[in-house]
Amino acid sequence: MFCPPCCDDASCPPVSLVIGLLTTFLLFFLLDANNPAVVIPSSPSVIYFLYLTRHHLESKHSDWIFLDNTAFGLDNPAVTWHSRTVVIGQHGLVDFAIGLYCCSDAALLNGHFGCFSFDFVLLSPAGMINLGMASLRLYAGLVGCRSGFCARSLRTLSGMTVSQIDEEVAKLLELKVQLGGDESRHQFTLKTAKGTRDYNPKQMAIREKVFNTIISCFKRHGAENIDTPVFELKETLTGKYGEDSKLIYDLKDQGGELLSLRYDLTVPFARYLAMNKVTNIKRYHIAKVYRRDNPAMTRGRYREFYQCDFDIAGQYDPMIPDAECLKIVHEILSELELGDFRIKVNDRRILDGMFAVCGVPDDKFRTICSTVDKLDKMSWEDVRSEMVKEKGLSEEAADQIGQYVSLQGGMDLAERLLQDAKMSQSKQACAGLTDMKQLFSYLQLFQVTDKVVFDLSLARGLDYYTGVIYEAILTQTGPVPVAAAQNGAGEKAEEGVSVGSVAGGGRYDGLVGMFDPKGRKVPCVGVSIGIERVFSIMEQKAEASAEKVRTTETQVMVASAQKNLLEERLRLTAELWNAGIKAEVMYKKNPKLLSQLQHCEDSGIPLVAILGEQELKDGVVKLRTVHSREEIDVSRAKLVEEIKRRTLDV
């Protein structure tokens, strides 16, 4: 008796899913709905069965003979069955398939087989393709078959030849194409999604160092930590980002709330303040955000990336919190030693006043602001062309804007613009320029004016900014780091890294009020560190230097020079762990000493505690300094103290 192999039920889809989807398709496309009952004719017949199989079959023909036909109540010779199998879809690791079975000796079965109910669809989680004796016994109505079998014949055709069977197979293959088939399984390429990447231990060690530097700075300024969900209600994010709203990742509707992945950490923070009625907080938040942007991997631009945010919420005197945010940016970039940088500052009130006096219509302020924001990526000629040809701004207005956005300076520029014939006509601009003077006076007290420049071309296109805005720019370029090119197949290689903006922020006094039912405002100002771009520079520096990056903080390796000392090594390792020492031990009973020392060299472990029979008798441990290879005997009681003394910086 032939019995095809059975699939296990671990990954089989629920019966309701298969019946609801595939049976419906089959009944409409292929089956005769008016013939629910099956009558086995005297001539050869073909019976359709819906079933599942782990075996990926396109169109497989097989002949199988039942040597034992007692299940049919027959004493006649063996009966030959012919089959065709067509896979039409896939659910996980399980295939949806149609089987066609033709009995060339159907006349021998007539009068026996036809007297039983043949009203089945084969959908078995326990063994879908066992079409041998177990299935046939089920057809005959006998008990003791595999549990879970449920069969229903879908259609019976009489008097079919092999060529007609092939025609039926062709129809099923056509149906497979209509349903999408399962070709994608064979075209699958193992890679990360576009705009994302993996991080190896060396890269993670660099990231951890950067995070620690940033968090230390935030805490030094008295910030508290919070966290918010990675996705928000879509309406929470809608209308907050201007033209950048098209970059928001919307999640597929599952029949419930419409959700989107967070675009930044600022809008969720404002929602948090409004929802919890918080009116005063200094917070930091480090988490991933998502943007459906065109990634530039070598420039630290991704679709999934970390942001490090620091914000001050509350009613305070003007420009004091704003100046502290700029001080924080200065501290972080200086401590990370990324190279030369500048912090550009401007004010949305100054921009709006400038647009007004230059003749920009009120309804075009935001869209023209978004275009001006591209000046760090495009030439003025291209920006002007976009304003005139795409945004419908007059050439005269565009030229006047061009005269202002080319201006840079410090407190002196703010004083000069207050005397400007056009700018002085705008109350908005004058208020912004007055605050800009106050800001620079505080920055002088914080001793950071050497890196800060008042730049009228800085726009920052996000709609929620209401006052001071700023952006930190790294000015260095360099060779493309290998890590930055990881998973970047198909992207054009660049000759250098131009990281650009690494931090940005500003004042957003109206954002919280958008979420409050009564429109109550909570003044806020903050800064966001573009950490992925910082990582690009740090990785570049690590690859360019000969300095080895440690990926662990292990202080000591517990080793042995002789055999049969595993228990002693484990005992000493446990003592060190219990004392707060970061220790490792090799997972072998009798490792070679050379292998243990080489592991320390490769991993940068500074010390080795070596045990031997003599050391155990004397109650000492031989402590070896890896880089100098110097060894001293240290009593077991003083070992922890000696290791801590030697590894204060580890």
UniProtKB/TrEMBL annotation:
<dbReference type="GO" id="GO:0032543">
    <property type="term" value="P:mitochondrial translation"/>
</dbReference>
<dbReference type="InterPro" id="IPR004154">
    <property type="entry name" value="Anticodon-bd"/>
</dbReference>
<dbReference type="GO" id="GO:0005739">
    <property type="term" value="C:mitochondrion"/>
</dbReference>
<dbReference type="GO" id="GO:0006427">
    <property type="term" value="P:histidyl-tRNA aminoacylation"/>
</dbReference>
<keyword id="KW-0436">Ligase</keyword>
<dbReference type="GO" id="GO:0003723">
    <property type="term" value="F:RNA binding"/>
</dbReference>
<dbReference type="InterPro" id="IPR041715">
    <property type="entry name" value="HisRS-like_core"/>
</dbReference>
<feature type="domain" description="Aminoacyl-transfer RNA synthetases class-II family profile">
    <location>
        <begin position="166"/>
        <end position="538"/>
    </location>
</feature>
<dbReference type="GO" id="GO:0004821">
    <property type="term" value="F:histidine-tRNA ligase activity"/>
</dbReference>
<comment type="similarity">
    <text>Belongs to the class-II aminoacyl-tRNA synthetase family.</text>
</comment>
<keyword id="KW-0547">Nucleotide-binding</keyword>
<dbReference type="InterPro" id="IPR045864">
    <property type="entry name" value="aa-tRNA-synth_II/BPL/LPL"/>
</dbReference>
<dbReference type="GO" id="GO:0042802">
    <property type="term" value="F:identical protein binding"/>
</dbReference>
<dbReference type="InterPro" id="IPR033656">
    <property type="entry name" value="HisRS_anticodon"/>
</dbReference>
<dbReference type="InterPro" id="IPR006195">
    <property type="entry name" value="aa-tRNA-synth_II"/>
</dbReference>
<dbReference type="Pfam" id="PF03129">
    <property type="entry name" value="HGTP_anticodon"/>
</dbReference>
<protein>
    <recommendedName>
        <fullName>histidine--tRNA ligase</fullName>
        <ecNumber>6.1.1.21</ecNumber>
    </recommendedName>
</protein>
<dbReference type="GO" id="GO:0005829">
    <property type="term" value="C:cytosol"/>
</dbReference>
<keyword id="KW-0030">Aminoacyl-tRNA synthetase</keyword>
<dbReference type="GO" id="GO:0005524">
    <property type="term" value="F:ATP binding"/>
</dbReference>
<dbReference type="InterPro" id="IPR036621">
    <property type="entry name" value="Anticodon-bd_dom_sf"/>
</dbReference>
<keyword id="KW-0067">ATP-binding</keyword>
<keyword id="KW-0648">Protein biosynthesis</keyword>
<dbReference type="InterPro" id="IPR015807">
    <property type="entry name" value="His-tRNA-ligase"/>
</dbReference>
<dbReference type="Pfam" id="PF13393">
    <property type="entry name" value="tRNA-synt_His"/>
</dbReference>
